[in-house]
């Protein structure tokens, strides 16, 4: 790749990340205040890499970079910058640099940039726009957050349904304000309702007298303007869409969403799922320790409550534990195995719900499967732990107790792992959000209760 | 949307999933053997939805559907079908249906379809292809699995560097075998090395005498053929690519990767991360209970070993527990809080490594932050648990013990949660794969040791 790479490739290492050499050189040039060297280093970088660099350096150095080279932060860098840092960077940029940065962006990127800012900053950025652009952005901001209306760009290339290839090509050639990127010509009826689309490739490869109506792509699909952005991303991935027209309530064309925006949303949705499953909420790597502490605290607090619940169960059996300390030694194993098996089922369920693979159709079959899996693995680990119990403590009945408790808890774990997210989803709560704490509570409580309860009945 | 929807939209409900009504109607038509009704139901469905339907019904019904309507399974349905079911469906389809299905696919889709099949099935499908297509597929299969070579399609539209818009349009119009989907004209030098690309939109909107060289897109970037598919997907997402030429070791153009394939890989990579973090490996919803049990067993076995390690720690303090049973009641709380806090740090770290946001540059800062977060949350929960300990058991020093143990374990959890995946990554092991078990082991062992050890020193 090296010998044919564009200049901007020179700075990125083999796996596309910002290279350590560049970062070190940036440190040096900031430390020595070498403005010229800093610019030479940043200029060839892709906007996304400059954004990454700004995210990775400490706050103080970030400010020095912005002081030394404010003009490297163009609109694209601001777009690519993590939301949590945008406010800081925007507040620190000179107004002229900011105005210039915003003016060069497409309307959908401006929307993405300013929708999370505080009102005064929003106002300042809107002021930088020309009137038409400002109206477009304000219109987009009037649609619900996380909706198709916020994702779409308003610039769409359309053609009347009766046109042929020649009409369309002449029209395109006569226009010099075509959008930067477009892939389809959208056919619209006289009331501006889209009825199909034709790819540019097909258009170029066809004779001038061919009707557009004969070149329609079967993948055509419209998106309602209020559709949730996650659903839009799902549709792009499921139906292999490249672009899709967005329509208002009366079916009129109002914009278009392209696959690059859908891919970015898919990535964000995944991030949300994985972080929520772990109880991290919306944490960013560049957050301060104080923000991070605040963000993680509620999840740990919930966990504390569930852990205390489990302890209350243990406390019911303090007499048994006082007599046979082996119970205290072994009980965390039952709970831990249940917690793990529950997390396995839970994660499969959350992912399957996200991809719409877990439905009313197969949910009972999957629940039955999870119970069987719990039973099968439970039986295997029951035998293993039964033997460990006997060998370690020389108490055959202790082996039986831990074995039975293991089977019970793994079956319950399988059922809870699938049942709890399914119920959450039916109730309209994000299954990734709260299911983990519930599942662990169930497996802890059931694990301790089954093990200690059986022990009290059988061993005492 | 309803009034302008294409026929295929009629069958999908508002959020694009297969609707329950259609699934119920399919059940009925299969149960009554009503071939005609089944075809009427399946015909308007998108291939991806037919694939989902086949995944969701039980094995027996899947076979009946294939018997009643074998021709609904075209190439696209096979492509969209989950890998775990492809073999079963392929084995069950009549050879003619199979041949037809494979012949209509692009070479990259055929590669995707057959790369995971057993050799005899692979051979049968290859036999269905024409010689040229077969050669293309076999060539692709010679590249490493999960590489750019497997993802790319070989059909690329190229133009010599010196051409202008008119030359290119004439060339395109003279060709009737253009690829189904293409977005860029790739400029190549006389040795067929790509040097830039021009979008079809720019081409259409420019005068015939404009040189292609004046219309180049700044986003241009080539992909080495051996590049890992995850890195390719990352590059598309990071640099907002729509398509990228693939080059061999000598820099010659060998194919092109488009964003729809990159989006599919991004989705798979995410699925892998989330499932690996939960210790589920590659489980699919349509796997049998036996396969699922086998797949989850190793992870549970690893967890058992770590749980036993933790129990060995507890066993060292059996005398203390026998004297103060409250220790047994409270000890799981310390371990559980540590496990949760560790999982929080771990998940943030795994995600940040995947997005290349955690680098040598900021790793020490993030480690310091995680330690501080652990300290801060540890102090808060130390106070809470200290009070709980005193109130519950009336032992002030027990409150001190659990408080100190909590602080120690939450700091260790933060450090382990970030340190363990970072070390894994440096060693070339997927951080999502094994980190979870290590982190829990550390938090369990440290939690029990700190709490029980302190109790022995202070309370006895």
Provide the structure class of chain A: mainly alpha
Average per-residue pLDDT of chain A, rounded, comes to 89
Backbone CA Rg of chain A:
29 Å
H/E element order of chain A: HHHHHHHHHHHEHEEHEHEEHHHHHHH
Distance between the termini of chain A: 74 Å
Number of β-strand runs of chain A = 6
Beta-sheet strand percentage of chain A? 5-15%
**Which fold name fills CATH's third level, the topology of the largest domain in chain A?**
Tetracycline Repressor, domain 2
How is the main sheet of chain A built?
3 strands, mixed
User: If interface size is counted as residues with C-beta under 8 Å from the partner's C-beta, which chains form the largest one?
Assistant: A-B, 146 and 147 residues
Low-confidence stretches of chain A: 1-15
Quick one: CATH superfamily of the largest domain in chain A? SLC41 divalent cation transporters, integral membrane domain
Query: Roughly how much helix do the residues of chain A carry, as a percent range?
Result: 55-70%
* CATH class category name of the largest domain in chain A: Mainly Alpha
CATH-derived architecture of the largest domain in chain A? Orthogonal Bundle
Specify the overall morphology of chain A. globular
Oligomeric grouping of the chains: homodimer
What's the structural domain tally of chain A? 3
Order of the strands making up the biggest sheet of chain A: 1-2-3
- Quickly count the helices of chain A: 21
């Amino acid at each position: 790749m090296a010998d044919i790479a564009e200049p901007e490739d020179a700075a990125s290492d083999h796996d596309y990340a910002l290279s350590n050499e560049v970062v070190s050189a940036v440190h040096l040039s900031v430390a020595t205040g070498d403005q010229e060297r800093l610019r030479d280093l940043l200029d060839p970088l892709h906007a996304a890499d400059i954004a990454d660099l700004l995210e990775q350096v400490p706050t103080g150095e970030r400010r020095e970079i912005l002081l030394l080279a404010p003009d490297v932060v163009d609109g694209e860098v601001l777009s690519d910058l993590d939301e949590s840092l945008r406010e800081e960077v925007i507040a620190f940029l000179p107004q002229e640099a900011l105005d210039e940065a915003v003016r060069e962006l497409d309307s959908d990127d401006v929307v993405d940039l300013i929708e999370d800012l505080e009102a005064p900053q929003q106002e300042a950025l809107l002021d930088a726009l020309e009137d038409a652009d400002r109206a477009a952005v304000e219109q987009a901001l009037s649609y619900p957050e996380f909706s198709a209306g916020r994702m779409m760009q308003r610039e769409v290339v359309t053609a009347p349904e009766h046109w042929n290839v020649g009409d369309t090509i002449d029209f395109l050639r006569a226009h010099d304000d075509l959008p930067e990127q477009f892939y389809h010509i959208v056919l619209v009826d006289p009331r501006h309702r889209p009825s199909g689309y034709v790819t540019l490739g097909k258009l170029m490869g066809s004779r001038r007298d061919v009707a557009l109506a004969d070149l329609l792509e079967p993948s055509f699909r419209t998106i309602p303007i209020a559709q949730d952005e996650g659903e839009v991303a799902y549709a792009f991935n499921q139906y292999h869409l490249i672009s899709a027209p967005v329509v208002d309530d009366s079916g009129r064309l109002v914009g278009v969403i392209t696959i690059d925006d859908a891919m970015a949303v898919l990535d964000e949705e995944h991030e949300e799922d994985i972080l929520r499953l772990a109880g991290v909420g919306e944490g960013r790597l560049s957050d301060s320790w104080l923000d991070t502490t605040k963000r993680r605290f509620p999840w740990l607090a919930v966990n504390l409550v569930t852990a205390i619940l489990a302890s209350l169960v243990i406390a019911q059996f303090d007499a048994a534990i006082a007599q046979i300390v082996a119970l205290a030694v072994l009980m965390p194993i039952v709970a831990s195995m249940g917690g793990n098996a529950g997390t396995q089922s839970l994660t499969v369920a959350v992912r399957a719900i996200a991809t719409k693979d877990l439905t009313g159709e197969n949910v009972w079959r999957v629940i039955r499967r999870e119970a069987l899996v719990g039973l099968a693995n439970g039986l295997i680990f029951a035998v293993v732990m039964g033997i460990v119990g006997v060998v370690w403590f020389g108490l055959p009945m202790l082996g039986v107790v831990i074995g039975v408790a293991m089977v019970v808890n793994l079956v319950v774990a399988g059922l809870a792992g699938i049942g709890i997210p399914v119920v959450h989803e039916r109730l309209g709560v994000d299954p990734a959000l709260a299911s983990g704490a519930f599942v662990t509570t169930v497996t802890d409580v059931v694990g301790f209760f089954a093990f200690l309860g059986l022990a009290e009945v059988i061993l005492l």
